């Protein structure tokens, strides 16, 4: 019986710590099964080279739970080990048998999954003792038994084993009894081993009998040894892809389309990425794509392997160039991973362009489902953005689709402003903004529909990419001013008329939650409404973007800013002004004269003071005059406000504008309906 200490030294322990410091105990099963697959694949390779001339027999891996004995055993009929092999690969921890084997047979070797001799030690995370019982494939080899209780001490001697291969027996410790439950083991095997290239057998197939499930005599194979992504695209039908998708994501709708990845230089990568239906909600999950290494599940946290925007996709990526044991920092710094990420981005963009060119009608029919993915990609990945500029689509309010190039050609002649900018008019709510869309259409303008969750950010990005281009929301201005062709017309009002109409209309604006209104006057089309309400483009866009972008909460807290535009060319407004001037002249003229007189006195007083320090008497006089002006203005506004309250037409004109913008609600809406009925 050989006894000794496992060779753990400062020279070879650091690679172990760096690569195999597991945070999750359940990973041990993946490592042990991977090693068993590894040993099986090695023997197949040796047989193909003629270095093993015996019968291969059943080449499978078996996982057996013995709850009574408290053991979990992983068995293979692979290459096996001699005492010398165990001493080399197990007792010297930092040595990887897989690496040596691959170097020898690198051109033709079957896939070598694990790092044999390293991942094995993960067993001690759940076991109080581990035994290795092994018989090498070599002629005249003797079976050997190695055991260790997790300390550096081990013992090794002859074993009673007649079949070629290796059994790893784990004596599960008291803290990890969950791994003696068949259901728990089956769950882990499904998670980590469901696509391994060698059959993995765990327990028996069950059938329903006498009101319960009972074991049959048939072995239960838990994995698919030839998953869809390992096959050539030419061998697969559309239904094969859909079936595989349903296996990966039971209960979900079929994907829109998919991309089959297959590259062997300068790195090896296979896989299938599916485009699921993504509607209005931006649902970024980190577990949609599964990462495999030679068909062994590695992780479903693939940030770093794929660009962030591709976390909206689903599917499988398999690459032996990404090690089994990865950390986030490793993924972010590894050169091979960066190349893989870049390749996937390029492949996805290329496939989308291909789909667009092959069948544009089909591409357009799926646009609403993939729009958020493409916009997210363009906003977060510069290379994808450059590629997507060829196939990203814009949809107008009539449901027609355009590429960026097509749309510019469509609107350039009619929608270029006086400064040479092509103005893209857009709506976010075709129902609520109907009157504005209709007014823009009547001017000969086309209106885009930009109602997606990312469209606010997407618009800003397009403005930076497209030369001399502005986006303007359809309700941000009256139709005549959406695309200014010339300088604005004067309102036609003098200062006294403006000072009369401003409080007259402002006093009748109902209180709207989290909204502020600025009253202004413009000479517009006489056939247009007497009052129109628009929303400041810059502030509204900042608030929209604040809803989906951290660090912009300041804008989200600000009230909505609206412009209440009084159309001075409209006959109703002209009548309101004429009637108000006649009715209020006697009351307002003295107040206006008082305000003008006091303002003149303030101007004279300030001229006298100029650069000199004002006296206390001068300060007091200026304050008295200022208070007098403020008092007269307040009195004047109150007189105008009382007058306006008695004129239903004023309130009616304002409420009509609010109603067309969806801003008239509750009691104000009810009063509007009563007033409308009374005015009939």
Automatic annotation (TrEMBL):
Classification via CDD domains: HATPase_Hsp90-like (cd16927)
Keywords for the protein's UniProt record, in alphabetical order: ATP-binding, Chaperone, Cytoplasm, Nucleotide-binding, Stress response
Keyword Zinc listed: no
Pfam families assigned to the protein according to its UniProt record, in alphabetical order: HATPase_c_3 (PF13589), HSP90 (PF00183)
Molecular function GO labels: ATP binding; ATP hydrolysis activity; ATP-dependent protein folding chaperone; unfolded protein binding
List of residues binding ATP: 31, 35, 76, 81, 96-97, 166, 328
Domain of life: Bacteria
Gene3D superfamilies (alphabetical): 3.30.230.80, 3.40.50.11260, Histidine kinase-like ATPase, C-terminal domain
Presence of keyword ATP-binding: yes
UniProt-listed PROSITE patterns: HSP90
Family per record: Belongs to the heat shock protein 90 family.
UniProt protein name: Chaperone protein HtpG
High-level lineage: Bacteria, Pseudomonadati, Bacteroidota, Bacteroidia, Bacteroidales
